[in-house]
Amino acid sequence: MLVLSRKVGEKLVIDGNITVEVVKIQGNRITLGVVAPSDVKILRGELIQKPAKSKTTKLIVEDGLLVAC
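Above: the chain sequence. Below: its structure as tokens.
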């Protein structure tokens, strides 16, 4: 596992086409922005462990940006 420290506005680039940016830090919570191609599946970790019949999360991508969940 790679562990990095980032400040607000700093980015992490994965494989040249996925960008993760620290948008906001408030207390012990951070907000991340992810820019990735529309064919890249992005899920929160806890959704991977849930049974298939649980609720699903819909991701909306516009112009390569994740805009809603």
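The radius of gyration is 14 Å.
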